[in-house]
Amino acid sequence: MIGSINKAWESLKDGGSRETLASDVSWPSLSRGEFLRVATAGALAVKIGAGSAVAHATTASAAAPVTDIDAFYDAWQERFNAGDLDGLTDLYVEDVTYLNPDEKMLAGRSDVRSDFEGLLAIKPTIVLGNRKHLVYKDIALTTNHWRLNFQNPDGVLQEMTGGGIEVIQKQADGGWRFIIDDASRSAV
């Protein structure tokens, strides 16, 4: 997939047309991991990079901590859909354990931020449904199902679905934050 994007980009740089490009590149349904790889490669290929991702994100997130566990996924969804990278990553503890869609273990909020930068650059929207949490004192096991929509480079609407399982913990400021996020659940 990334090879197709790079080949298409090189074709355009070498004088190829977008019409030829559109007929040469197919955009199949993607898994969440494939989508994130494509989004990141696409962002780099068109030199959007971190600058555009930051430009899309709201500047400073002065978001209040989410103290109501029932509002936690609402806050995550709202921040994601607004492209609020700072607010989104504020919902993770500094030393979070994060398993990305490619099943690569990442450690820390900065890695989570990097993982979301390329995705937010293409302005997707997400709906989190079937939200559940099981609370024990200041720790909760949470699950959800999600639907992610985005437009591929040809403007065709794509939809992915999947589920998440996470562990969140109430912090000293009263806000709930992810301490473990497993984003590798099946996506189609």
What does this protein structure show overall?
The chain has 188 residues and is of the alpha+beta class. It has a single domain (2-182), classed as Nuclear Transport Factor 2, Chain: A (Roll), CATH 3.10.450.50. It is built from seven helices and six strands; from the N terminus they run H-H-H-H-H-H-E-E-H-E-E-E-E. It has helices at residues 2-13, 18-24, 32-45, 49-56, 72-81, 85-89, 109-121, and strands spanning 92-99, 105-107, 125-136, 139-151, 157-170, 176-182. Strands 2-1-6-5-4-3 form a six-stranded mixed beta sheet, with helices on one face. Strand 4 and strand 5 form a beta hairpin. Helix 3 (32-45) packs across helix 7 and helix 4 packs across helix 7 (109-121). The protein is globular and about 50 Å long. The chain starts with a helix and ends in a 6-residue tail after the last strand. Residues 69-177 form the DUF4440 domain. It holds the Pfam family DUF4440. This is DUF4440 domain-containing protein.
Order of helices and strands: HHHHHHEEHEEEE
Q: What is the top-level CATH class?
A: Alpha Beta
Instruction: Decide which structural class fits the backbone.
Output: alpha+beta
Strand content: 25-35%
Protein name: DUF4440 domain-containing protein
Organism: Aurantiacibacter rhizosphaerae
Pfam families: DUF4440
Domain DUF4440: 69-177
Secondary structure elements and pairings:
Layout: H1 2-13, H2 18-24, H3 32-45, H4 49-56, H5 72-81, H6 85-89, E1 92-99, E2 105-107, H7 109-121, E3 125-136, E4 139-151, E5 157-170, E6 176-182
Parallel strand pairs: 1-6
Antiparallel strand pairs: 1-2, 3-4, 4-5, 5-6
Pfam families: DUF4440
Protein name: DUF4440 domain-containing protein
Domain DUF4440: 69-177
